[in-house]
Automatic annotation (TrEMBL):
Keywords: Glycosidase, Hydrolase. It comes from Clostridium boliviensis. InterPro entries: GH (IPR017853), GH_1_N_CS (IPR033132), Glyco_hydro_1 (IPR001360), Glyco_hydro_1_AS (IPR018120). The keyword Thylakoid does not apply. Belongs to the glycosyl hydrolase 1 family. GO terms for molecular function: hydrolase activity, acting on glycosyl bonds. PANTHER family: 6-PHOSPHO-BETA-GLUCOSIDASE ASCB-RELATED, GLYCOSYL HYDROLASE. Pfam families: Glyco_hydro_1. This is Glycoside hydrolase family 1 protein. NCBIfam families: PRK09593.1, PRK09852.1. Its EC number is 3.2.1.-.
Length: 468
């Protein structure tokens, strides 16, 4: 297996899942600070002590120690996000919070000191809470101007340090988790489809606007979209199942079509007609979407799902984030996520065939319960061969896709250091090469320990993927 020269190996985290320090140095509250149980709710009025994200893994104070470990593994790139409410605490201020800007200045300087490229997500599941409560998040068109002010601020401040940017994390997840993804305060049980798709339109316009501004302010930068990828297979060869899978897949590929092709596809226009949805556009929206498409497409990949015209014939996938039914041919993780390495090769080919843009795998990994053990020499570690096997199997399929002719820019393993889960707000669901001593009851020393996978991934990077 040979990966391209210059392949960007690294790891990924999100600010709200690792930083902690939720109320330090002028940071305002975000939607994450009031969701102590993750996507399963409830949303609280104020932060509560049982919310693991308020402390995270204390990356805010320990990032130098962690980046040194990333450098030891040989990272070429590190994906993180900027907490919007660190820069604009309420989201609608005129002037930014200097202490928040300084933190990210220091963070990016530390990465560059080791030759690690920052890959920065502008908005990663943490809308300033005020924008959610007072404006109902992206349903309100005013969000575009708030986002624009935020974007111009961080591009001006960090443009000389950050080359790779992503506009929104897993933008298509707003279909299923509107509060988490879009800061939409209206409960999803009462949210009308027309309001949801109007919010999506606002996000898409804001993404195109950020791409336009970035190219103007930072010549040579690369700006991408970020999609939650989930290959959808027909449960059987019955044409009804095939069409059901196609329709379901359209709901995801629509977001990439908009970012790459810059116009609403015919299948979505039909969906809007049949569901009595009228997108309210303002002058310039269509031109902005058309003329400011992304440089690359990035995506997360954890699982595939199946779809059937008659869902009663199959078991619904409890762990499936985006619906569908369980694939009887695949094993599942401890959290019910189907393990499908070949699905990653499939989606890489599907996306490149469709969009003809460079691709970047910015999330992939195995959430599992790890056991810290003491070795004969007294050092502590996790013998996570299951994680090594999972990642190896997926990276082999990345290599196959590269052999297929797909241009893959890089690979950042999700949760390269243990962090708080976005879906469940647990820390026991661990992804990292580095174990963090913190438990779901809040106990622990926060000390870091290298897992067995740490040295394995280091060797993979050193050999540019030859030693999988």
């Amino acid at each position: 297996m040979k990966f391209p020269d210059g392949f960007l190996w690294g790891g990924a985290v999100a600010a709200n899942q690792c930083e902690g320090a939720y109320n330090e140095d002028g940071k305002g509250l975000s939607t994450q600070d009031v969701t102590p149980r993750g996507i399963k709710g409830p949303v609280t009025k104020e932060p509560t002590s049982d919310n693991m994200k308020l402390v995270g893994i204390d990356f805010y104070h320990r990032y130098k120690e962690d980046i040194k470990l990333f450098a030891e593994m040989g990272f070429k790139v590190f994906r993180t996000s900027i907490a919007w409410s660190r820069i604009f605490p309420n989201g609608d201020e005129k002037e930014p919070n200097e202490k928040g800007l300084q933190f990210y200045d220091d963070l990016f300087d530390e990465l560059l000191k080791y030759g690690i490229e920052p890959l920065v997500t502008i908005s990663h599941y943490e809308t300033p809470l005020n924008l959610s409560v007072q404006y109902d998040g992206w349903i309100n068109r005013d969000m575009i101007s708030f986002y624009e002010r935020y974007v111009r601020t961080i591009f001006k401040r960090f443009g000389g340090k950050v080359k790779y940017w992503l506009t929104f994390n897993e933008i298509n997840s707003v279909l299923h988790e509107p509060f988490l993804s879009g800061g939409i305060y209206t409960d999803k049980s009462r949210l009308k489809k027309r309001d949801l798709y109007q919010a999506i339109h606002h996000e898409l316009v804001a993404s195109a606007l950020a791409t336009k501004i970035g190219h103007e302010m930072m010549p040579g930068c690369k700006i991408g979209c970020m999609i939650l990828s989930m290959p959808i297979y027909a449960l059987t060869s019955n044409p009804d199942d095939v069409i059901a899978a196609m329709k379901s897949d359209h709901m995801n590929t629509f977001f990439g079509d908009m970012h790459v092709r810059g116009q609403y596809p015919g299948y979505m226009k039909r969906y809007f007609r049949e569901n009595n949805i009228q997108i309210q556009m303002e002058d310039g929206d269509e031109e902005l979407l058309r003329d400011h498409t992304v440089d690359f497409v990035s995506f997360s990949y954890y699982m595939s799902i199946c779809e059937a015209a008659d869902r009663s014939v199959a078991q619904a996938g409890e762990g499936n984030l985006m619906g569908g039914v369980t694939n009887p041919y695949l094993k599942q993780s401890e959290w019910g996520w189907a393990i499908d390495p070949q699905g990653l090769r499939y989606v890489l080919n599907q996306f490149y065939d469709r969009w003809q843009k460079p691709l970047f795998i910015v999330e992939n990994g195995l959430g599992a319960i790890d056991e810290l053990v003491t070795q004969p020499d007294g050092t502590k570690t996790v013998l996570d061969d299951y994680r090594i096997n999972y990642l190896r199997d997926h990276l082999i399929q990345v290599g196959e896709a590269i052999e297929d002719g797909v241009p893959v820019m890089g690979y950042t393993s999700w949760g390269c250091i243990d962090l708080v889960s976005a879906s469940t707000a647990e820390l026991k669901k661990r992804y990292g090469f580095i174990y963090v001593d913190r438990n779901d009851d809040g106990t622990g020393t926060l000390k870091r320990y290298k897992k067995k996978s740490f040295d394995w991934y280091k060797n993979v990077i050193e050999s540019n993927g030859e030693n999988l």
